[in-house]
Amino acid sequence: MNEFLSGMAAALCLVAGLFFLRFWKKTRDRFFAFFAASFWLMALHRMVNLYMRDNNENLVGVYAIRLVAFVLILVAIIDKNRAAPRK
């Protein structure tokens, strides 16, 4: 059951990334590109964590993927707020 839920969460992260990619294509705003990349990294984290669950030695690397995803979200927020105002 846990594997099913992890798979569902990974699939939903991929779909959310596709939505943000579509918004990026419409607006060319980097904010949406960062969010798309972040959600795809979260999907990758779910899938890698699912397959490497029994190998505890590499869990730090798996969670590093998640850390990068959250850092991308922070970078997107900071980049959006530091951007010059549009005229």
TrEMBL record:
Q: Which residues cross the membrane?
A: 6-24, 31-48, 60-78
Q: Name the domain of life.
A: Bacteria
**Keyword set, alphabetical order:** Membrane, Transmembrane, Transmembrane helix
Quote the protein name from its UniProt record: Uncharacterized protein
Q: Top-down, what is the taxonomic lineage of the species of origin?
A: Bacteria, Pseudomonadati, Myxococcota, Myxococcia, Myxococcales
